[in-house]
Request: fold
Amino acid sequence: MIEQFSQIGRNPLSAVLEGFYSTSLMMTWFSPLIGIALSFDSVIKERKSASLNVLLTHPVFRDTVILGKMLGAVLLLLVVMLVSSVVSLGTIILLLGAKVSAMELSRIAMWFVLTFLYSLVFLGIGLVCSTFVREATDSLVYNIVIWLTLSIMFTWIITFLSYSLEPVISAGSLDITGSLSALSPMHHYAELSTGKTGLGWGAGGGGYGRENMDGILDIRFTLAQWLKEFWTNLVILFIAPLLLMITAYLKFLREDISA
Amino acid sequence: MNYDFEKALIIAKKEFADKLWTPIFYLYSGLSYWQFSQSPIEKFF
Reply:
């Protein structure tokens, strides 16, 4: 499909976008940790300190409390992501002394949205854990295990499965590893931002510029072409945090608030 | 359902202020690590 696309530039990545390609690798590993840190004890903390009981004796609805908590965490995450992206861009410009074109800026803006959505998924996971789990330390451990499984070790797990399931895969036409990859937000973020199927441990850092599209940062392709190729990943990155937040919201409404 | 956005915003502001230390700590650790990686002592490890 990609072969039919017109190519609007010769090099896949400009110098500035190459910097953001490396930042993507870093963000894949560590931005979930920020999302988790901002949400893993949101509800637990209030329940433990009994301030939730006091808060709910005031004329405040439960949905207002959880909505406020979500809004605060999401806004802080947005600020953190914005600051780190601007710092990255500033450092790259300072080091390279390169001018940034409007097209590059638009790609960086899109990349920022993708990175924000990716960390928002983990903020959602943290919120869900925070409403289901009773202890902050338990919630943190669960969240870290989820982060390690879905972001860091996921490439290893998939590689291991693809080897162990090789007879099954070669016997039928089922793409088991492909379907399993879809479980990880890391896979969707990696495809959208760099065009790779995964950026976890063992995926390798470099290697771009072949005929395949290298995600949002690849300036050989237009945004429409990028959207046509990766729209499913984008939809999943939009829907996943939304579903997780709805789950946390519904659980909080039905929760027993006593510690 | 009846949403009271003003009260939600008050709670959001409190949550924002409560959690602000987290990214600041991250930034501090990141900068410390970066400074460490630039220093000659890192070569000994």
